[in-house]
Amino acid sequence: MSNSSKRKEESHLLMNGGVKQSTWTKVFNSKAVWEEKDEFLDVIYWLRQIIAVILGVIWGVAPLKGFLGIAIFCVINAGVLYVYFSSFQQVDEEEYGGTWELTKEGFMTSFALFLVVWIIFYTALHFE
Question: For a tag on the chain, would you pick the N or C end, based on fewer CB atoms within 10 A?
């Protein structure tokens, strides 16, 4: 652990009264201190999966079809996570390999999950 990350953690622990925060607490706290790189990448991954399920259900119920649905999903998925890590959490993107690495973290698995959920809901509600 580098000196700067140790100082961040120490100051963060002092602000919290010496109590270490859980991952779930950090997810919803702006500018949380992430001790481990993998912990934040896991959060990005699972937030993407949650977004994929929610949008898949909405698209299936709507009923949205075709390339427009896929394009809107890609924009929302990438946009929401970009705003989350750059504005809400304000992490140093270079620490994680750059903006592109964070933006694509878990994207393909969330895309596959989105398609499965979308197809299941669309088929169940709009076909006889």
Answer: C
Alpha carbons 85 and 88: distance in angstroms, whole number: 6
2 vs 7, 22, 59, 60, 69, CA distance in Å?
A: 9, 21, 45, 47, 44
Residue 53 structure tokens: 């399920």
CA pair distance 34, 37, nearest whole angstrom: 7
> DSSP label at 95?
G
Q: CB–CB of 121/61 below 8 Å?
A: yes
CA atoms within 13 A on the CB side of 41: 15
Look up the pTM and report it: 0.79
CA–CA distances in Å: residue 54 to residues 37, 86, 101, 115: 26, 22, 23, 11
